[in-house]
Structures are given as structure tokens and as C-alpha cells.
Amino acid sequence: MTGPLYIAAYDTESPSCLEALRAIVPVHERHGVPATIYLVARMLDSQQAELVALLRDHPLFEIACHSYTHMLLHDADEFGKAGPPERYPAEIIDSKRRIEDAFGVAVRGFRPPVCSPEGLRIAPEALRLVAQAGYAYVSSIAWGPKWSLPAWLVRPFTYAEQGHPALWELPPCGWHENLLKGNNKVGAVRIGLFPPYMPETMPPGYVKTPEDEFAYNNRPFIDRAIAEAMPQVSLIWHPWSLHRFDPAMRMLEITFRYVRERGLAAGTFGQLQALIAGA
Hints:
- The protein has a single domain, classed as Glycoside hydrolase/deacetylase (TIM Barrel).
- The protein is 37% helix and 14% strand.
- The chain contains 9 helices and 11 strands.
- The strands form 3 sheets. Strands 1, 2, 3, 10 and 11 form a 5-stranded parallel beta sheet that branches. A 4-stranded mixed beta sheet has the order 4-5-8-7.
- Helix 1 packs parallel to helix 8, helix 3 (88-103) packs parallel to helix 4 and helix 6 runs parallel beside helix 8.
- It is globular and about 45 Å long.
- The termini are close together.
């Protein structure tokens, strides 16, 4: 593989995401860009028919897991405390089975709610259950040091040091776009460090347009991933927030055109794991 694999991915976590997905899917179809959909399994309890009709057997989309209820699996600074350990099997194992039953596919990937600067290294019991459940990869490093933003570019690695050599960590990068837009009411997130990791990604305030989002988040990370010969580049997107900010999905159109202009291959996290595990 030459150049980073560009991976569009969506943390799909609430009923409002369904309307957003209906706007997102046609953009992917027009551009022929694959994506990984990290799905909170609880959405299937009320929206299974709609989600299955939209996504099942679609050649562009990998269906992965984002827990059962979006319960935290580790303490997360301003976002709350971890849920009770007795719920972990439902959040990690039962959620996988629920999604597999609904979509008729093997779920290979897991993204924990909120993620962390260290991935699942800070949640050993969750990590153990992820490995036990048979996931091939997790995508759980989505913050910079000390819970800062944006998340840095981090190369894939395995959890061999924790006793799980077959389990890969495949990190995303950049801003949580919902926080870049002010779409979440949260406490004081550590915005940047000094000196900043990438000064060009630090806007003077919340972004106001899809063009601003592309300029401060997407393009800088795509360009840096190319310059650093990273294996992957993937931004942190949430359908409900994308739709609230940009119902026409102009940012996706701009980004997908740029990916093609830079000559990058586009794929899914599952495809990335297969590539690097087989290397």
C-alpha cells in the first residue's frame, strides 16, 4: 500500500443518527468511498428495520460495534465515570452478537464510547473482554496527551504487551468534530497543548462552515498523514452532529474530492487490519 489508507468512519450512537445516515449514504455512493459504521447496538432495539434496510449487504459499509448503550468503559475526565463492571459483557460481547444477528455479518471492530489518550490500555477488563469476544481490532485512541484535542496521528499496534498479540489498535485522529463545532455541552476540554501539535488545526473559535471544518481538521490531517507515510488517516465523525451542522453534507463532498485529488485509496478499518496483519 502506498500512502495512507483513507478511512471514513462514523460513531453512530443515538436515534437521531438514522436521519443523518440517510443523507450520508448517498454521498458515499456518489464518490464510491467505503466507510466503517460504529453502531451502538441499542439503536437496533427501536430502529432495526430501518438500519438494516439502509446498510445490510451494502458493499461500501463495514458494520462495527460501538458498545450496547454507549456506557463508559473507563473514567473519562469531563465525560464521567466508568459504568459498573458487571455491565461490561453486555456492552462488549452482547452488543457484537446483537449487531451480527441483525446484519448477518461477522463484526470485527470495536470502538469504545469516548475513547481515551491511551486506548484500552487504561481499561484492562474491557480489553480482556474485547479479546475474548473475538474482535480483530479496536479503534480507541482518539485524544491527544492529557485528554487534549486534536488527537494525534498514531500508528497501529497490537496489544501484545497486555497479552493480546492478535488484537490490533487502529487509531483515528483529529478533532471530535462535534466538539469542534460546539455541538456538545461538556466541561472544559483541554484544547491543544503548548507548543501545539499542529498549529494549523487550531481555529480561533468554533468552526462556522463546512469549508472551515475541512480547512482546520480534515485537510491538515490528510496532508500530514501523507507526509509522515502513515498507514491510515481517519477523522472522528458523528452522524447526528454532521447533520445538525451541515445537512447537505458539503464537508463530506469536499473531503472525498480531496482524498481522490491526493491519490489516496479509501477503505474501512476492517480492510486496514487485514492489510497490516497480513503484512
